[in-house]
Amino acid sequence: MSSNPDPRILVLNGGSSSGKSSITRALQELASGIWLTFGVDTFIDALPGRGDSPQAGITYEPDGTITFSPAHRRLEQTWYTGLASMAGSGAHIILDEVLLAGASRQEHLMSIFNDVAVAWVGVRCDPDVAAAREARRPDRVQGMARHQALSVHSGMKYDFEVDTTHRSAEDCANDIACWLSARDPRGEGWRGDVRSLQ
Q1: Is 39 exposed, middle or buried (0-12, 13-18, 19+ CB in 10 A)?
Q2: How far apart are CA 176 and CA 190, in angstroms?
Q3: More confident: 3 or 66
Q4: Half-sphere exposure of 85 (CA within 13 A, CB side)
Q5: What are the CA-CA distances from residue 104 to residues 101, 127, 142, 146 (Å)?
Q6: Stated pTM of the model
Q7: Active site residues
Q8: pLDDT tens-digit series, residues 92-121
């Protein structure tokens, strides 16, 4: 998808407990240059009650699904516009994302990041493995990992993919770093070691 060999924004999309946050931190140490990392957790932590207050506009359903108020969506739009401005001013940004609506959210972000070079990385994990990781973490809403493991990838178009089911975050970050450094000079994504559930 990416047409630029030097992306300013690297979007890592995957479900809860897929290992994205660990990958982004490892990738910051491996990728060339200085990369800032932001994402859905950064945004939620800045909301009232770190997302748990009714004022945050987030509702966590019993089955693990999440809904958002119109006010929350408007603020989220402002958040992404600000990140696009930072990238447009020269920052390299890794976004740790959970695109709940899959392709439609990707299209929405692409419209916001229209003037910035973006690369898309899918972070996959088997639903059973993600659910087991979630169960060991008291800070997670149970059920989200299994619900999101496949749905966040629905219709998505990626430049590169990794799978954390049987591989460490460090190994996956190394794959991404190698891909970034070995991208085709014509701007075509390198797909030398893509691992996917499909």
Answers
A1: buried
A2: 10
A3: 66
A4: 6
A5: 6, 22, 25, 20
A6: 0.85
A7: 41
A8: 999 999 998 889 999 999 999 999 999 999
